């Protein structure tokens, strides 16, 4: 008997993921496709710290204390760890709907909207849920073919829906969302401290050395100091300002995206349903709350029989071919992808048939797949009461 060896290339799901991300280390590292500014960030941080360790630290360690370079090294390592953790992780990308799931949602929406005459504008694809006595609109993503969970948004640069989307940050080369926000904040905070630290000891170094050998001689002996002072001076304003802004957002349990859109202020007059109305509680939730696993399963093996939504290639009709102008206050009953902000009663999963609601609390509906459920004509909106926190 002769054994026949068949070599098969293993295909992992990250290789087939739609969206504009790049992966390396066999899917362990995930970033945005555009990384030029991220390399500039790395260059500025590493370059400035290298100059500081080369020119100031030897003198300051002897003249003042050996703790100065030690603390600088610890701070530098922490900054780099937070930067790489933010840049290389899944920010909370939501998987796109499978083609059959997308078809099912389309059928549901059409069933809910009824027949639309030619030339008539179709109503917007919005679903309302009630969270902490506030009505929150869930919008349909025409690219991902899902109803976005509360606080999620589609990043046009990465071409993915991201849960608790904050913003896309070119400086870290990634989206900032539910899974990496706290690391992004710790990065800006520690970078602010590092910048202030280096700037301060640059000035101390010049002052001490000028007393020994004169100001001009000091600048000639340590040319790196001038570069460091300039980089730190210009970085200081932006980084410290950014840290202050995010501290303000965290104290309100608000995202940059919500702040820019005025989701909880201005004309909408809706109060933030996620805020505890307590700064300490809000900070604890954002910075010390639970961490969430990635739902992409990037390193999972591709299965021919049962491809997952994360591995489905984008189909031509996945594009926003059926976009329609928004008309407010129209609701659909199509399903959504739940997250922790979604009330339990409103977590039907993809493909759940429409739930009839009587009043505000719908009956528990057992999630079913698109294959074993057919859309029903049930135009009643889902409005759910729940205490999110
Ligand atoms: Zn999307
Ligand atoms: Zn992005």
From TrEMBL:
Membrane topology label: Multi-pass membrane protein
Low complexity biased stretches: 321-334
GO molecular function annotation: protein-cysteine S-palmitoyltransferase activity
Region Disordered, annotated ranges: 304-389
Transmembrane segments: 37-55, 61-84, 183-207, 227-251
Subcellular location: Endoplasmic reticulum membrane; Golgi apparatus membrane
Palmitoyltransferase DHHC domain residues: 137-261
Species this protein is from: Astyanax mexicanus (Blind cave fish)
Presence of keyword RNA-binding: no
Family membership noted in the UniProt record: Belongs to the DHHC palmitoyltransferase family. ERF2/ZDHHC9 subfamily.
Catalysed conversion reaction: L-cysteinyl-[protein] + hexadecanoyl-CoA = S-hexadecanoyl-L-cysteinyl-[protein] + CoA
Alphabetical list of InterPro entries matching this protein: Palmitoyltrfase_DHHC, PFA4/ZDH16/20/ERF2-like
Name of the protein described by the UniProt record: Palmitoyltransferase
